[in-house]
Amino acid sequence: MKIYFKNAKILSQGTIIEGDVLVENDRIAYIGKPISVDADRVVDVAENLLMSGFTNAHCHTPSTVLRGISDDKPLEEWLDEIIPYETSMTEEDIYWSTMLGIAEYVSGGITSVEENYGNIKPIAQAYKKSGMRARVSIGLPNVNALEILPFETQFSIVQDAGLSAVCYAHSVYGTSEENLDKLTTFSHKNNLPVSIHMSETLKEVGDCTVKFDKTPPELLEEIGFFDRDCIVYHCVHCDKDDIQILANYDVGVITCPSSNLKLGSGIAPIYALQNAGIKIGIGTDGAYSNNSYDMFKEMFLVATLNKATLNRADIIPALDVVYMATKNGAELLGFENVGDIAVGNFADLILIDLSKPHNQPNNDIISNLVYATKSSDVYLTMINGKIVYENGKYFIGEEISEIYLKNQEIRVKIKELGGKNE
Ligand SMILES: [Zn+2]
């Protein structure tokens, strides 16, 4: 299968070039001046933008159906409120809610995702069916007890679906010391990376320090969690010693600014993390705390929040943020040959309509991407060389009307249950 994109502006290796792109099967085969090629389809990009799709490096996608169900609460109160709704969801509910999330991903240009949730059977099924690139959690994902399959079984489910795996612990407050230890041992045994929510709220850091006389990074260092390839989500309340520990172990940080703002958790010290040489990716977190999967919104916040807190307009330029949302995120999730338009890379790419008023004129397309462009400007999304979204149409293995209908039914059902799973 050959798809030829002609007449494009192309974001490649941090610069905009003009030309054509040939996708052959799942890979980018050519970038450059127009060539004559016998393609199955020619897409006239009409001087709009072709760029890598985004990596949403932290999410709980089955929460999509819970969007708006608990707003305006601090994290601890919010967790108490949403957990009964989560546990009232069946495997089928999780499948359809994940599918709704996937539809939102592809329509907004997200082509790969880190999935952090329990009950991975229906999740793996949804990702496999949709063609989404995903790294899926095995482990002890939730504060409360959803049915937890043995790690080995979870690992097989992820592998059988052709997805990559990460050993995921919820947090130092939500996962017992014994379970953290078990998970770390399993990750060593199977040579798997690890991940965890870390230093998200002041309460988490305070409680951990009282209980263990250590901050969360100090505790995780002590138990050997950072000896594996590791990413941590949030990292809002880290001081310079914490940051140094992360840098020493080459731990990646996934920042989720919308969720941190909405839950009143705080603002992550992105500039300090960057200066310590730490690689940063961007996540949306779940729809129950964000409440949308919009990487343009997240990029704007990552670019601007530290400017405001530090009174420094000159820091965290737009290109750095685009890298975080694409290449860096993909690398942190272990996806090789993903995150940029380059010959030989997997064809995970998006077409952005630059013709709308808020994208005009094109003085600086990279600046526009972070400060002006909207997720609704995404016209086409391709993953692994397959078009999964184009101009309002979805090709993700389920009809969009069916996805909406199923999620309406789930919404009504869990509302009737009142969030009680007895
Ligand atoms: Zn999260």
Keywords for this entry:
422 residues, Urease, subunit C, domain 1, 37% helix, 23% strand, globular
Distance between the ends: 51 Å
Q: What would CATH call the homologous superfamily of the largest domain?
A: Metal-dependent hydrolases
Rg on CA atoms, Å: 21 Å
Estimated structural class: alpha/beta
How many H/I helical runs? 14
**CATH fold-level topology of the largest domain:** TIM Barrel
Number of domains: 2
Assign the CATH architecture of the largest domain.
Alpha-Beta Barrel
* Biggest sheet statistics: 9 strands, mixed
Shape: globular
Bound molecules: zinc ion
- Unreliable stretches, pLDDT < 50, 5 or more residues? none
Share of β-strand residues: 15-25%
Total DSSP E strands: 17
> CATH top level of the largest domain?
Alpha Beta
Helix content: 25-40%
Mean pLDDT: 95
Précis, in short:
The chain is an alpha/beta fold and 422 residues long. It folds into two domains: 2-52 and 339-394, Urease, subunit C, domain 1 (Roll); 54-332, Metal-dependent hydrolases (TIM Barrel), CATH 3.20.20.140.
Account of the protein in words:
By secondary structure, the protein is an alpha/beta fold. It folds into 2 domains: 107 residues, Urease, subunit C, domain 1 (Roll); 279 residues, Metal-dependent hydrolases (TIM Barrel, Alpha-Beta Barrel). It has 14 helices and 17 strands. α7 packs parallel to α8, α11 packs across α12 and α12 packs across α13. The relative contact order is 0.17. The protein binds zinc ion. Zinc ion binds next to loops.
